[in-house]
Amino acid sequence: MLSRIKQGLTCLFSKYDKKNDEEVKKILTMEEFEIFDKMEDYDKVHSFNIFLQVKRNEELSREILYLKLALLHDCGKDKVTIFRRIKKVIFGDKKLEAHPSLGEEKLKEINSSLGYLIGQHHNKKVDKKMEIFQKIDDM
Prior knowledge:
Layout: H1 2-13, H2 21-27, H3 30-37, H4 41-56, H5 64-72, H6 82-90, H7 94-97, H8 99-107, H9 112-120, H10 128-138
Helix pairs in contact: 4-5, 5-9, 8-9
């Protein structure tokens, strides 16, 4: 419950710091960065925070795909209002719940391996690395 309140406040008041783009561009290709750049501020803030945690993780930090996944895992959400996010938590929301496959679709022609991981990032029992990523994303 406390994490949901924190998410709500972050969604309402977060502003992505464009200075972070310098670090993001070291990881993503230009095509991948264009997708990242179109994400909502909340999703960029969340994704950059996940990226920082993945960078600190002993196992995932050496995996460029997981660093990219951290930055782009929610790229399928597109433009989402705070009300739709609240609706998803309380009642569910088909479009938001489909964001992994929508993200995979965006990336499949650019980086098929990354697209696959984005499509799987909420599925259970993918592999040990994805399990670690999911724990980080759920914090």
